[in-house]
Amino acid sequence: MKKYNVAVVGANGAVGEEILRVLEEIDFPLAKLVPLASARSLGTQVEFNGQNLDIIELTEDVFEKEAVEIALFSAGGSVSAKYAPFAVKAGAVVIDNTSHYRMDENVPLVVPEVNPQDIAKYKETGIIANPNCSTIQMVQTLKPLDEAYDLVRVDVATYQATSGAGKTAMKELVDQMQAFFAFTLDEAKVEAFNQQIALNVIPQIDVFTPNNYTKEEMKMVNETTKIMHKEIPLSATCVRVPVLRGHAEALTLTFDSQVNADEAKAILSKAPNIVLVDNPDEELYPMPKDCVDANETFVGRVREDLFANNMLHLFIVADNLRVGAATNAVRIAQKWVEMENQA
Ligand code: A2P
Questions:
Q1: Is the shortest distance between the CB of 79 and ligand 1 below 6 Å?
Q2: What pTM does this model have?
């Protein structure tokens, strides 16, 4: 089987590092790994498969020089906007983790468990977009239930970890907690988030849009429709919580037909990359602390609504750096390779 030169843009960032871990763990047909970051990181290294690799500076011609065939971008929207076209020009397929290309109608937005067929559309631009972290774990859960009962509405509240905002944001939570124990929390830096995150929850992720929903909330609305090829009315409340890794979501789902919680659990337990953790008798349910480094989405607290027979409530958790970013990107790459080898 052909092996590929793979570049990771933002290789020493929170998501980039996780991409390296996922690539190490799976049997990916890798010829060469090219770890890219900014000039700030020159002289530093990343560890990959027991070796220390020098960070290479992201430049316009690095993709051509390194003969990159797959470029995984995770260094922010403006970096993707500027450099993804150079990767494409050099003949690479770009898998972009940022929101920059997600809603571009010529760019497929892919969760391999939901719409793998859309990957073929990459030929139009050379780019495949990776959805928002909260959207990925949600649509993985929605898809099998939609097939069974025909989903007509989603209401979701998220509990999102600080790592969704990168390494500096994770550090800010830790620093503020340390300041709390040193009785200096009042003086601690508040930079990565617009409010103190330690001992707090913040009902704002990203900026507000004119309809009073935040950008993060509107991403969940628009991306879900694009991935599922179905206009699903959806309302989201996205909340940042003082957790380092693992996004949780409380979902209220309304269907066109009557639902049964036991049957729904049986359906979910067979769905790809979903793990059912749901046993009230033993007080078992999914939690962020149990999902770190896992490549699956954990689903629990599956209940019928008390008043309507066509509604279900569930609680889902996934590692946002893996399922919500790195693992999804690598799974897209694997599917792309599969398709290339069939062509
Ligand atoms: P660098 O450390 O050299 O700036 P995180 O999401 O954890 O904050 O990480 C962001 C990642 O994106 C880092 O690897 C960072 O590398 C990289 N990055 C940020 N800005 C640029 C840029 N202008 N060019 C290349 N890489 C960038």
A1: yes
A2: 0.97
Q: What's the gap in Å between 206 CA and the centre of ligand 1? A: 19
Is the Cα torsion angle 249, 250, 255, 260 positive or negative in sign? positive
Which ligand 1 atom minimizes the distance to the CA of 16? 14
| Catalytic residue positions, numbered | 133, 247
* Model confidence pLDDT, tens digit, residues 66-107: 999 999 999 999 999 999 999 999 999 999 999 999 999 999
Q: What is the DSSP string of 176-235?
A: HHHHHHTT-GGGS---SSSS--TT--BS--S-B-TTS-BHHHHHHHHHHHHHHTS---EE
- Show Cβ contacts of residue 266 under 8 Å, excluding neighbours closer than 6 positions: none
Q: Check pocket membership of 12 for ligand 1, CB cut-off 6 A.
A: yes
Closest by CA position to 97, among listed 118, 125, 74, 70 = 74
**156, 250 contact by CB (below 8 A):** yes
